[in-house]
Amino acid sequence: MLDCAIIGGGPAGLTAGLYTTRGGLKNVTLFETGMPGGQITQSSEIENYPGFFEHDKTGMDFMDTWQKQCFHFGLRHEMKKVERVAKTGEHFTVTLEGGESVEALTVIVCTGSTPKRAGIKGEDEYFGKGVSTCATCDGFFYKDKPVTVLGGGDTALEEAFYLSNICSDVYVVHRRDTFRAAPATIDRAMRKENIHFVTNAVIDEIVGDAMGVTGVNIKHNDGTMTHMDNTGLFVFVGHNVNNEVLKDQNGDFICEMNQRGQVIVDLCMRTSVEGLYAAGDIRIEAPKQVVSAAGDGSVAALQVISYIQEQQ
């Protein structure tokens, strides 16, 4: 019987593992099919994590020290895919790929979310080299330079506004002439002088060279094409929440979720199921930042320790 099963090996999961094991729990396993680290390992540079300001270090370098620290205190890592989690009596059954299962007193789900790709030609080639899905993470790299934002929802316009305070000009490309964002968000973006809207259009291709993105080709609804020189493209077309492990065999969620498929938690990362916690990008209102995910993981871990002590 595990004291705690942690599902997902990004910043939230690793921090949860660190705090649970250093806090005295002896039997904690982190389930992650690959090497832990999460999406941040794909970043070529880290500038906005407090205390880490080494420009020659990549996201992989950044997370490498996290792994060493967490495993030092006794966290075990199982490279096995978790199929689902179920509450069985006073504990949980964690079913793994192939039918194997383990029992756990508590579970912390940290499987995160994955930004949707737009499927544009050149998107994969230049991802991390001018194509980004996080303005907070990468906006500063384009200080006083023009950038393009793709999308028409709340996130796209909020991130465009954020970028407008850093970049010289922000061009928002949207396939329609109306936006899905909240009226207040639209109004705020419309009033910003350096935010420009390119509506009834899509990005047909991302172009660049060995140094990265140099511009985008835009296809308008009337069939005409235009080229826009740019050094950065921010894609905001939604996220896929990685919540499959929280579905039962009938496809129903075992805890309360919102309409976007995000886990509803309180400030202690507690779900509607006693002993089940969610941390990081899978939860509601997640800022999608490493520092925030790490904070979530520590909060969930401390709650797990208290919960187990109360049960005993």
Walk me through the topology.
Blueprint: E1 2-7, H1 11-22, E2 28-31, H2 59-72, E3 76-78, E4 82-88, E5 91-96, E6 101-109, E7 113-115, E8 131-132, H3 135-138, E9 146-150, H4 154-164, E10 169-173, H5 183-190, E11 195-198, E12 201-209, E13 212-220, E14 225-229, E15 233-235, E16 239-241, E17 276-278, H6 290-311
Parallel strand pairs: 1-2, 1-6, 2-3, 6-17, 8-15, 9-10, 9-15, 10-11
Antiparallel strand pairs: 4-5, 5-6, 7-16, 12-13, 13-14
Helix pairs in contact: 1-2, 1-6, 4-5
CATH topology of the largest domain: FAD/NAD(P)-binding domain
Determine and state the CATH class of the largest domain: Alpha Beta
Main sheet attributes: strand count, strand direction, barrel closure: 7 strands, mixed
Output the radius of gyration.
21 Å
Total beta-strand segments: 17
The SSE order reads EHEHEEEEEEHEHEHEEEEEEEH
CATH superfamily assignment of the largest domain? FAD/NAD(P)-binding domain
Structural class: alpha/beta
Count every helix, treating DSSP H or I runs of 4 or more residues as helices: 6
- Separation of the first and last Cα atoms: 14 Å
Q: Low-confidence parts lasting 5 or more residues at pLDDT below 50? A: none
- Mean pLDDT, to the nearest integer, reads 93
Helix content bin: 10-25%
> What's the architecture of the largest domain, going by CATH?
3-Layer(bba) Sandwich
GO molecular function: thioredoxin-disulfide reductase (NADPH) activity
Organism: Sulfurovum xiamenensis
Cofactor: FAD
Protein name: Thioredoxin reductase
